[in-house]
Amino acid sequence: MGNLSHFPDTRTISIKSYKMAGSLLAMALALVILVPLLVSAQLGNATGLPQIATRFRKYYDLPVTVCLASGTISLIFEGGPHPTLTPAYLDLLKTLRVPAAFFFAGQNINANTIAIVARAEVEGHVIGFTGYKYPISYTSLTPAQVTRELTMGSAAVAQARGGFAPTYFRFPGNEYTLADLSAVTVAGYVSVSTSLDAFDGAGGSASSSQSSNQQQQQQQQPAATGNQSDIYFVQWQQRLSPVAANARYIASAHDSAPVALSALRAIVNLAQERGYTFLRLDDCLEKDANTLKSGRKSNGLGTALLLNSGQRPGDDSSTKSAAGAALAFSVAPGAAVISLVVAITLSIF
Length: 349
Hints:
12 strands; two-stranded antiparallel sheet; 6-stranded parallel β-sheet; globular; alpha/beta
């Protein structure tokens, strides 16, 4: 019988094969963990894309149009603050115990109206903005003009809120281009649109060539007639689904016009009779209406970002998102390092 010593031991081959396979698997696992983290970090730094999130959903450059939970409605107002009409809306909302969101225009915030902004927030309403000028059509603006509108509008609202910048933005009249949406996203705002609109006699969009006098005249709204308010209510009656379980809305009106004011009580009663619940805008963007933000105080200080300084007290959704991100970025690299150590160990031994 011949000498077989020069033939390799099959057991040695098997062990080396297992080690090689294990090493490759560990290295692959490390790459799977590390590469997405590095890519996302680089993209975030390069583009400045915001990571605004609730507990259930992230929003980037697509406008929010509905609440996430069925049977819910979020009221939003734009065009203010108006020196007399906005306080009247706040009075009625307080009586009805209905929260809302007010999208203010920077040019309307002055010595006579700055206290209205503070009052709206203290009474539990979300504060957003529509830019600086109002009315205005973003589709007719250059990219530089859009940026200026966002910067000046946000700064005016932030000044009225003690330095806290708004999180939510709305295009007047829901008119925008994809470039406009991108500018809003990069600036770090959530764009809010609507799914239920009724004509209340006021418009949010205007030609950029419209004179300042014309814009100011639109702020001086006459008292609503009964007929206008009746028509407005009928529009709501027709457009609001009678089956609350199958519908959810973000609905708009103008706090710079009186029509909705005269019809609002009847609209709220109608919606509640049909089984709807009214939610703040930030709560409307939560998946479950029964799982609202526990960290927010009863005085309603809500979702906002402190200019260049993180988060406003009372909003726990961004806290949880940040905590989750921090946990992921602290645990994942550790797992990747362990995988690399295993790979190196297997390759050596």
